[in-house]
Write a structure and sequence with these properties.
It comes from Melia azedarach (Chinaberry tree). This is Lipase. The protein is globular and about 55 Å long. By secondary structure, the chain is α/β, with parallel strands linked by helices. The longest helix has 20 residues. The chain is built from 16 helices and 11 strands.
Length: 409
Protein backbone atom coordinates (compact mmCIF):
# COMPACT_ATOMS: atom_id res chain seq x y z
CA UNK A 1 0.00 0.00 0.00
CA UNK A 2 1.72 3.19 -1.12
CA UNK A 3 1.47 6.70 0.24
CA UNK A 4 0.41 7.87 -3.22
CA UNK A 5 -2.55 5.48 -3.22
CA UNK A 6 -3.68 6.64 0.20
CA UNK A 7 -3.36 10.26 -0.78
CA UNK A 8 -5.50 9.65 -3.86
CA UNK A 9 -8.06 8.03 -1.61
CA UNK A 10 -8.14 11.08 0.61
CA UNK A 11 -8.59 13.27 -2.43
CA UNK A 12 -11.70 11.45 -3.53
CA UNK A 13 -13.15 10.80 -0.08
CA UNK A 14 -15.62 13.68 -0.13
CA UNK A 15 -19.03 13.07 -1.66
CA UNK A 16 -21.76 11.26 0.31
CA UNK A 17 -19.03 9.37 2.04
CA UNK A 18 -16.58 8.84 -0.77
CA UNK A 19 -16.10 9.53 -4.41
CA UNK A 20 -13.59 8.16 -6.82
CA UNK A 21 -12.85 5.40 -9.22
CA UNK A 22 -13.64 1.73 -9.09
CA UNK A 23 -9.89 1.29 -8.76
CA UNK A 24 -7.51 4.06 -7.84
CA UNK A 25 -4.51 2.46 -9.46
CA UNK A 26 -4.64 4.39 -12.71
CA UNK A 27 -3.16 7.90 -13.00
CA UNK A 28 -5.61 10.75 -12.58
CA UNK A 29 -5.52 13.02 -15.60
CA UNK A 30 -7.03 16.44 -15.05
CA UNK A 31 -7.56 18.73 -18.01
CA UNK A 32 -6.04 22.19 -17.43
CA UNK A 33 -9.41 23.83 -18.06
CA UNK A 34 -11.04 21.69 -15.40
CA UNK A 35 -8.24 22.42 -12.92
CA UNK A 36 -8.70 26.13 -13.51
CA UNK A 37 -12.46 25.78 -13.14
CA UNK A 38 -12.30 24.17 -9.70
CA UNK A 39 -9.55 26.49 -8.54
CA UNK A 40 -11.81 29.40 -9.49
CA UNK A 41 -14.77 27.77 -7.73
CA UNK A 42 -12.92 28.03 -4.44
CA UNK A 43 -12.73 31.81 -4.73
CA UNK A 44 -15.45 32.86 -7.20
CA UNK A 45 -18.22 30.61 -5.93
CA UNK A 46 -20.30 27.78 -7.32
CA UNK A 47 -22.68 29.97 -9.30
CA UNK A 48 -20.06 31.75 -11.38
CA UNK A 49 -17.92 28.72 -12.12
CA UNK A 50 -20.18 25.67 -12.15
CA UNK A 51 -23.72 26.82 -12.99
CA UNK A 52 -23.72 29.96 -15.12
CA UNK A 53 -20.98 28.50 -17.31
CA UNK A 54 -23.47 25.79 -18.27
CA UNK A 55 -26.17 28.21 -19.33
CA UNK A 56 -28.26 28.28 -16.14
CA UNK A 57 -29.24 31.24 -14.00
CA UNK A 58 -27.81 31.14 -10.48
CA UNK A 59 -27.88 33.19 -7.29
CA UNK A 60 -25.60 33.12 -4.24
CA UNK A 61 -27.31 33.40 -0.84
CA UNK A 62 -26.24 33.51 2.81
CA UNK A 63 -28.20 32.37 5.85
CA UNK A 64 -27.21 32.48 9.54
CA UNK A 65 -28.12 29.67 11.91
CA UNK A 66 -29.42 30.20 15.44
CA UNK A 67 -25.95 29.38 16.80
CA UNK A 68 -24.15 31.83 14.51
CA UNK A 69 -22.88 29.75 11.58
CA UNK A 70 -23.11 31.54 8.23
CA UNK A 71 -24.07 29.14 5.48
CA UNK A 72 -23.68 29.67 1.77
CA UNK A 73 -26.50 28.52 -0.49
CA UNK A 74 -26.89 28.54 -4.27
CA UNK A 75 -30.17 28.88 -6.12
CA UNK A 76 -30.93 27.74 -9.66
CA UNK A 77 -34.33 29.41 -10.08
CA UNK A 78 -35.13 28.23 -13.63
CA UNK A 79 -33.99 25.70 -16.17
CA UNK A 80 -31.73 26.33 -19.12
CA UNK A 81 -34.67 27.36 -21.28
CA UNK A 82 -35.51 30.14 -18.81
CA UNK A 83 -39.06 31.20 -18.07
CA UNK A 84 -40.72 32.68 -15.02
CA UNK A 85 -39.28 31.68 -11.65
CA UNK A 86 -42.46 32.42 -9.68
CA UNK A 87 -44.38 29.52 -8.18
CA UNK A 88 -41.89 26.88 -9.17
CA UNK A 89 -41.83 24.36 -6.30
CA UNK A 90 -38.60 24.75 -4.30
CA UNK A 91 -36.37 21.74 -3.63
CA UNK A 92 -33.37 21.73 -1.30
CA UNK A 93 -30.47 19.40 -2.17
CA UNK A 94 -28.36 18.33 0.82
CA UNK A 95 -24.94 16.76 0.22
CA UNK A 96 -23.29 14.10 2.34
CA UNK A 97 -20.20 13.87 4.53
CA UNK A 98 -17.04 15.51 3.09
CA UNK A 99 -19.09 17.08 0.29
CA UNK A 100 -20.69 20.44 -0.49
CA UNK A 101 -23.30 21.84 -2.84
CA UNK A 102 -21.10 21.15 -5.85
CA UNK A 103 -21.71 17.42 -5.29
CA UNK A 104 -24.90 17.77 -7.34
CA UNK A 105 -23.13 19.53 -10.24
CA UNK A 106 -20.11 17.36 -10.93
CA UNK A 107 -21.60 15.38 -13.80
CA UNK A 108 -22.61 16.89 -17.16
CA UNK A 109 -25.87 18.90 -17.06
CA UNK A 110 -27.89 16.16 -18.74
CA UNK A 111 -26.82 13.73 -15.96
CA UNK A 112 -26.79 15.94 -12.84
CA UNK A 113 -29.79 15.98 -10.50
CA UNK A 114 -29.66 19.74 -9.82
CA UNK A 115 -29.92 20.62 -13.51
CA UNK A 116 -32.51 17.91 -14.20
CA UNK A 117 -34.72 19.35 -11.46
CA UNK A 118 -34.33 22.89 -12.81
CA UNK A 119 -35.19 21.72 -16.32
CA UNK A 120 -38.27 19.96 -14.93
CA UNK A 121 -39.77 23.10 -13.42
CA UNK A 122 -38.29 23.13 -9.91
CA UNK A 123 -36.66 26.01 -8.04
CA UNK A 124 -33.39 24.35 -6.96
CA UNK A 125 -31.46 25.29 -3.80
CA UNK A 126 -28.05 23.81 -2.94
CA UNK A 127 -27.12 23.41 0.72
CA UNK A 128 -23.58 23.76 2.09
CA UNK A 129 -23.32 22.65 5.71
CA UNK A 130 -21.18 24.38 8.31
CA UNK A 131 -17.45 23.79 8.00
CA UNK A 132 -17.45 23.43 4.21
CA UNK A 133 -15.56 25.98 2.14
CA UNK A 134 -18.71 27.94 1.25
CA UNK A 135 -19.99 27.94 4.85
CA UNK A 136 -16.95 28.76 6.98
CA UNK A 137 -18.31 32.01 8.40
CA UNK A 138 -19.60 32.61 11.91
CA UNK A 139 -21.00 35.63 13.67
CA UNK A 140 -18.32 35.53 16.39
CA UNK A 141 -15.95 32.56 15.87
CA UNK A 142 -13.10 32.00 13.45
CA UNK A 143 -12.94 28.55 11.88
CA UNK A 144 -9.36 28.22 13.14
CA UNK A 145 -10.81 28.22 16.66
CA UNK A 146 -11.41 24.73 18.06
CA UNK A 147 -14.72 25.90 19.54
CA UNK A 148 -16.00 26.50 16.00
CA UNK A 149 -15.88 22.72 15.46
CA UNK A 150 -17.84 21.64 18.55
CA UNK A 151 -20.82 20.13 16.77
CA UNK A 152 -22.05 16.95 15.15
CA UNK A 153 -24.89 16.00 12.84
CA UNK A 154 -27.25 16.74 15.73
CA UNK A 155 -26.67 20.43 15.07
CA UNK A 156 -26.97 19.96 11.32
CA UNK A 157 -30.47 18.61 11.95
CA UNK A 158 -31.53 21.04 14.67
CA UNK A 159 -29.85 24.24 13.43
CA UNK A 160 -28.55 24.17 9.83
CA UNK A 161 -31.59 22.47 8.33
CA UNK A 162 -34.19 24.77 9.97
CA UNK A 163 -32.19 27.88 9.02
CA UNK A 164 -32.05 26.86 5.35
CA UNK A 165 -35.68 25.71 5.24
CA UNK A 166 -36.99 28.92 6.77
CA UNK A 167 -34.83 31.04 4.48
CA UNK A 168 -36.02 29.29 1.31
CA UNK A 169 -39.63 29.41 2.52
CA UNK A 170 -39.30 33.14 3.19
CA UNK A 171 -38.01 33.70 -0.34
CA UNK A 172 -40.51 31.47 -2.16
CA UNK A 173 -43.59 31.40 0.06
CA UNK A 174 -43.91 27.67 -0.64
CA UNK A 175 -43.32 24.38 1.16
CA UNK A 176 -40.05 22.65 0.32
CA UNK A 177 -39.19 19.33 -1.23
CA UNK A 178 -35.92 17.87 0.06
CA UNK A 179 -33.36 15.50 -1.44
CA UNK A 180 -30.50 14.19 0.67
CA UNK A 181 -27.66 11.75 0.10
CA UNK A 182 -25.96 9.74 2.86
CA UNK A 183 -25.48 12.07 5.85
CA UNK A 184 -28.01 14.36 4.20
CA UNK A 185 -30.61 11.63 4.75
CA UNK A 186 -29.62 11.18 8.39
CA UNK A 187 -30.26 14.79 9.33
CA UNK A 188 -33.59 14.73 7.49
CA UNK A 189 -34.73 11.64 9.39
CA UNK A 190 -33.60 13.17 12.68
CA UNK A 191 -35.52 16.39 12.00
CA UNK A 192 -38.64 14.54 10.86
CA UNK A 193 -38.56 12.30 13.94
CA UNK A 194 -38.69 15.48 16.05
CA UNK A 195 -41.53 16.85 13.87
CA UNK A 196 -39.40 19.82 12.85
CA UNK A 197 -40.49 22.08 10.00
CA UNK A 198 -43.58 20.04 9.11
CA UNK A 199 -45.54 23.21 8.36
CA UNK A 200 -43.12 24.10 5.54
CA UNK A 201 -41.82 20.64 4.50
CA UNK A 202 -43.55 18.99 1.54
CA UNK A 203 -41.64 15.74 0.94
CA UNK A 204 -38.24 14.09 1.35
CA UNK A 205 -36.21 11.88 -0.99
CA UNK A 206 -33.51 9.82 0.70
CA UNK A 207 -30.71 8.48 -1.51
CA UNK A 208 -28.46 5.83 0.01
CA UNK A 209 -30.05 6.46 3.42
CA UNK A 210 -28.02 6.50 6.61
CA UNK A 211 -29.79 5.90 9.93
CA UNK A 212 -28.74 2.66 11.57
CA UNK A 213 -25.11 1.71 10.91
CA UNK A 214 -24.46 -1.45 12.91
CA UNK A 215 -24.48 -3.70 9.82
CA UNK A 216 -22.12 -1.79 7.55
CA UNK A 217 -19.98 -4.20 5.56
CA UNK A 218 -17.15 -1.72 4.98
CA UNK A 219 -14.23 -3.10 7.00
CA UNK A 220 -12.35 0.12 6.28
CA UNK A 221 -15.08 2.35 7.72
CA UNK A 222 -15.58 0.10 10.73
CA UNK A 223 -11.85 0.03 11.49
CA UNK A 224 -11.70 3.83 11.21
CA UNK A 225 -14.63 4.14 13.62
CA UNK A 226 -13.05 1.80 16.13
CA UNK A 227 -9.70 3.61 15.93
CA UNK A 228 -11.30 7.01 16.49
CA UNK A 229 -13.40 5.76 19.42
CA UNK A 230 -10.31 4.19 21.03
CA UNK A 231 -8.44 7.49 20.81
CA UNK A 232 -11.36 9.92 21.03
CA UNK A 233 -9.65 12.52 23.23
CA UNK A 234 -6.81 12.92 20.72
CA UNK A 235 -9.17 13.31 17.78
CA UNK A 236 -11.51 15.69 19.60
CA UNK A 237 -8.55 17.90 20.44
CA UNK A 238 -8.06 18.51 16.72
CA UNK A 239 -11.49 20.13 16.36
CA UNK A 240 -11.51 20.06 12.57
CA UNK A 241 -11.45 16.78 10.67
CA UNK A 242 -9.76 17.52 7.35
CA UNK A 243 -9.84 14.44 5.08
CA UNK A 244 -6.52 15.44 3.52
CA UNK A 245 -4.81 16.47 6.75
CA UNK A 246 -1.74 14.71 8.15
CA UNK A 247 -3.42 12.99 11.15
CA UNK A 248 -6.25 11.76 8.94
CA UNK A 249 -3.70 10.60 6.36
CA UNK A 250 -1.91 8.56 9.03
CA UNK A 251 -5.21 7.09 10.26
CA UNK A 252 -6.00 5.65 6.83
CA UNK A 253 -2.43 4.51 6.30
CA UNK A 254 -2.45 2.61 9.61
CA UNK A 255 -5.82 1.03 8.88
CA UNK A 256 -4.70 -0.16 5.46
CA UNK A 257 -1.95 -2.15 7.15
CA UNK A 258 -4.41 -4.10 9.31
CA UNK A 259 -4.98 -7.78 8.49
CA UNK A 260 -8.10 -8.43 6.43
CA UNK A 261 -8.36 -4.93 4.99
CA UNK A 262 -7.61 -4.71 1.29
CA UNK A 263 -6.74 -1.18 0.20
CA UNK A 264 -5.85 -2.07 -3.39
CA UNK A 265 -9.30 -0.76 -4.36
CA UNK A 266 -10.06 1.83 -1.75
CA UNK A 267 -13.36 3.08 -3.04
CA UNK A 268 -14.86 -0.39 -3.08
CA UNK A 269 -13.33 -1.13 0.31
CA UNK A 270 -14.92 1.96 1.79
CA UNK A 271 -18.26 2.43 0.05
CA UNK A 272 -18.90 -0.75 -1.94
CA UNK A 273 -18.23 -1.63 -5.59
CA UNK A 274 -19.93 1.15 -7.53
CA UNK A 275 -21.21 -0.16 -10.83
CA UNK A 276 -21.66 2.94 -12.90
CA UNK A 277 -18.99 5.60 -12.45
CA UNK A 278 -17.40 7.10 -15.55
CA UNK A 279 -13.62 7.28 -15.22
CA UNK A 280 -13.39 9.95 -17.92
CA UNK A 281 -14.93 12.56 -15.62
CA UNK A 282 -13.31 11.44 -12.38
CA UNK A 283 -10.26 13.64 -12.78
CA UNK A 284 -12.53 16.68 -12.84
CA UNK A 285 -14.50 15.39 -9.84
CA UNK A 286 -11.41 14.68 -7.76
CA UNK A 287 -10.05 18.15 -8.39
CA UNK A 288 -12.94 19.75 -6.51
CA UNK A 289 -11.44 18.47 -3.28
CA UNK A 290 -12.62 17.11 0.05
CA UNK A 291 -14.51 19.25 2.55
CA UNK A 292 -13.84 19.32 6.27
CA UNK A 293 -16.24 18.34 9.00
CA UNK A 294 -16.09 18.43 12.79
CA UNK A 295 -14.15 15.66 14.52
CA UNK A 296 -17.05 15.51 16.96
CA UNK A 297 -19.26 14.64 14.01
CA UNK A 298 -16.91 11.82 13.04
CA UNK A 299 -16.94 10.50 16.61
CA UNK A 300 -20.74 10.65 16.61
CA UNK A 301 -20.91 8.56 13.43
CA UNK A 302 -18.33 6.19 14.92
CA UNK A 303 -20.55 5.76 18.00
CA UNK A 304 -23.41 4.72 15.72
CA UNK A 305 -21.22 2.13 13.98
CA UNK A 306 -19.61 0.62 17.07
CA UNK A 307 -22.61 0.77 19.42
CA UNK A 308 -25.50 0.27 17.01
CA UNK A 309 -27.27 3.38 18.29
CA UNK A 310 -29.36 6.07 16.66
CA UNK A 311 -29.10 8.70 19.36
CA UNK A 312 -27.72 12.14 20.00
CA UNK A 313 -23.99 12.60 20.56
CA UNK A 314 -22.73 10.79 23.66
CA UNK A 315 -20.25 12.85 25.69
CA UNK A 316 -19.25 9.69 27.59
CA UNK A 317 -19.73 11.57 30.84
CA UNK A 318 -23.00 11.40 32.77
CA UNK A 319 -22.70 14.97 34.03
CA UNK A 320 -21.90 16.33 30.58
CA UNK A 321 -24.82 14.43 29.06
CA UNK A 322 -27.07 15.72 31.82
CA UNK A 323 -25.87 19.27 31.13
CA UNK A 324 -26.81 19.00 27.45
CA UNK A 325 -29.83 16.70 27.56
CA UNK A 326 -31.16 16.77 31.12
CA UNK A 327 -30.42 13.05 31.44
CA UNK A 328 -27.37 10.86 31.89
CA UNK A 329 -27.65 9.18 28.50
CA UNK A 330 -28.20 10.83 25.10
CA UNK A 331 -31.81 10.75 23.83
CA UNK A 332 -32.57 8.34 21.00
CA UNK A 333 -34.12 9.39 17.71
CA UNK A 334 -37.42 7.53 17.27
CA UNK A 335 -37.95 7.16 13.53
CA UNK A 336 -41.31 5.50 14.16
CA UNK A 337 -42.54 8.93 15.23
CA UNK A 338 -42.15 10.33 11.70
CA UNK A 339 -45.70 11.24 10.60
CA UNK A 340 -47.19 8.28 8.73
CA UNK A 341 -48.61 10.50 5.99
CA UNK A 342 -45.40 12.40 5.24
CA UNK A 343 -44.30 11.69 1.63
CA UNK A 344 -41.01 9.76 1.53
CA UNK A 345 -38.96 8.42 -1.37
CA UNK A 346 -36.24 5.95 -0.30
CA UNK A 347 -33.69 4.58 -2.75
CA UNK A 348 -30.92 2.18 -1.72
CA UNK A 349 -28.48 -0.21 -3.36
CA UNK A 350 -27.59 -3.86 -2.95
CA UNK A 351 -23.83 -3.21 -3.22
CA UNK A 352 -23.70 -0.31 -0.74
CA UNK A 353 -21.16 -1.00 2.01
CA UNK A 354 -22.23 2.02 4.10
CA UNK A 355 -26.01 2.05 3.68
CA UNK A 356 -26.27 -1.70 4.10
CA UNK A 357 -29.45 -3.51 3.06
CA UNK A 358 -29.93 -4.89 6.59
CA UNK A 359 -29.73 -1.42 8.12
CA UNK A 360 -32.13 0.00 5.53
CA UNK A 361 -34.55 -2.80 6.42
CA UNK A 362 -34.43 -1.63 10.03
CA UNK A 363 -35.19 1.90 8.83
CA UNK A 364 -38.09 0.67 6.71
CA UNK A 365 -39.30 -1.37 9.67
CA UNK A 366 -39.56 1.86 11.63
CA UNK A 367 -41.81 3.13 8.84
CA UNK A 368 -44.00 0.00 8.69
CA UNK A 369 -47.13 1.97 9.57
CA UNK A 370 -46.56 4.56 6.86
CA UNK A 371 -49.47 5.24 4.54
CA UNK A 372 -48.66 3.01 1.52
CA UNK A 373 -49.00 5.66 -1.16
CA UNK A 374 -46.84 8.05 0.90
CA UNK A 375 -43.78 5.80 0.94
CA UNK A 376 -41.99 4.82 -2.27
CA UNK A 377 -38.99 2.48 -2.07
CA UNK A 378 -36.63 2.04 -5.01
CA UNK A 379 -34.04 -0.74 -4.64
CA UNK A 380 -31.22 -0.95 -7.19
CA UNK A 381 -29.33 -4.19 -6.77
CA UNK A 382 -26.05 -3.17 -8.46
CA UNK A 383 -25.78 0.32 -6.94
CA UNK A 384 -23.25 1.20 -4.24
CA UNK A 385 -22.95 4.39 -2.21
CA UNK A 386 -21.58 6.79 -4.80
CA UNK A 387 -23.61 5.59 -7.78
CA UNK A 388 -26.60 7.56 -6.45
CA UNK A 389 -24.95 10.91 -7.13
CA UNK A 390 -22.28 10.14 -9.72
CA UNK A 391 -23.60 7.16 -11.66
CA UNK A 392 -23.72 7.82 -15.39
CA UNK A 393 -27.13 6.14 -15.53
CA UNK A 394 -28.47 7.68 -12.31
CA UNK A 395 -30.65 10.10 -14.30
CA UNK A 396 -32.63 7.23 -15.79
CA UNK A 397 -32.43 4.77 -12.89
CA UNK A 398 -32.91 7.11 -9.91
CA UNK A 399 -33.61 10.74 -10.83
CA UNK A 400 -36.47 10.23 -13.28
CA UNK A 401 -38.47 8.18 -10.73
CA UNK A 402 -37.52 10.68 -8.02
CA UNK A 403 -38.70 13.66 -10.08
CA UNK A 404 -41.93 11.83 -10.89
CA UNK A 405 -42.44 11.25 -7.15
CA UNK A 406 -41.90 14.94 -6.36
CA UNK A 407 -44.36 16.00 -9.04
CA UNK A 408 -47.04 13.79 -7.53
CA UNK A 409 -46.85 15.49 -4.13
Amino acid sequence: MTVVLIYRFLLFLFCGSAVGTRAVLFPIKLQPAAAALFAAAATDGICETMVKTRGYACEEHKVTTQDGYILGMQRIPVGRSGGASEKRPPVLLQHGLFGDGASWLLLPPEQSLAFALADNGFDVWLANTRGTSYSLGHSSLNHSNRVYWTWSWDELASSDLPAMFKYVHSKTGQKLHYVGHSQGTLIALAALSKHQLLDIWKSAALLSPISYLSHITSKLARAAAESMIADASYWLDLGEFNPTGQPEFKLIMDICQKPGIDCSDLLSAFAGPNCCLNSTVLGNILSHGAQSTATQNMIHLAQMITEGTLAMYDYKDKNENKKHYGQSTPPAYDLASIPNDFPLFVSHGGADALSDVKDVKILLGSLKNHVPNKLEVLFIEKYAHVDFILGVNAKKVVYDPLIAFLKRQ
